[in-house]
Amino acid sequence: MIVTIFAVVGLALACTCRLPAGVAPSPTPYPTYTPYDTYTPVPTLNPPTDLPPTGTPPPTATETPKPTKTRTPTPTVTPWALIVTMFVPILPTNDLVLEDVFLSTQAEVIARVANQPAGGFNGSVTYQVFADGVLVATRSEGIPHGSQAFWSGYKVVGQQSIRVVLDSGGAYWEANEGNNEKTKTCSAAATACW
Q1: Which of the two residues, 129 and 37, has the higher pLDDT score?
Q2: Is pTM beyond 0.70 here?
Q3: Which one of 109, 115, 117, 144 is least enclosed by Cβ atoms within 10 Å?
Q4: Can the peptide bond before residue 59 be classed as cis, meaning omega within 30 degrees of 0?
Q5: Are 181 and 166 in contact (CB under 8 A)?
Q6: Residue 9 to residue 48: CA distance in whole angstroms
Q7: Can you name the residues that pair with 97 across neighbouring β-strands?
Q8: Burial group, residue 181, by CB count within 10 angstroms (0-12, 13-18, 19+)
Q9: What contacts 118, CB < 8 A, 6 or more positions away?
């Protein structure tokens, strides 16, 4: 600790600057420095000799230590825009939409899927087809650039309640998760859904 204090004092003495004789101080508020030919040597400090030997406990203090002054930090003003930016979550803008569920002329369930905006997502998406509450097909298709019809491979028998769930595993973080499912009643004889 004492060695550190001597080092700090030595550095403080080394940093003093002197103006050469006959040179007036600068009128600017910024300091002007003299050329390198003026040098103030650092005084040599001898280590203290009055320290107790190593391993000896320090003497007990009889007086109470003086309280130290603490600096109170100056409060800073944070712009509201920064606070709002920090606490407003970034919401997704891309969305996969199950636009429609209908039947082909052979009564196969078809799901029309849209990628909004066009090209917003890349990769593949999984969708499931349920007939009267029973899972009858699970398919994975490449995500279209815009909108595309996907044939499920399941043909309606008679009249059934068909539910199609797009991105059932939640693989994509979308702007609207509520438009990924549709339930319709479909008729094989009419090849129509309502």
Answers
A1: 129
A2: no
A3: 117
A4: no
A5: yes
A6: 14
A7: 114
A8: middle
A9: 145, 146
